[in-house]
Protein: HPr family phosphocarrier protein
Organism: Paenibacillus phytorum
Amino acid sequence: MSGLDTRAIVEINQLANQFQSSIVIKVGKRFIDVKSILGLSITLFSNEVYHLEIHGPDEAKAKLAMEQLFIKHGLPLSEV
């Protein structure tokens, strides 16, 4: 794993943990808790399109922040 990949994983995990909302990415048929660094590290860079599912009291802020971070790291998001 390159330094950029590691940095992306850490940044996504740290950002997710700033919110109360549940933040999950759907990758294929798998659902990964973004607040789990282990889950991210084995899933994030599988060249797939990711779908964010966010639920909770601060979901609008969390969604915007997470989308911006995924874009920053060139990780494609679906709108499904």
Summary: The mean pLDDT is 88. The helical segments are 3-16, 37-43, 59-72. The chain has three helices and three strands.
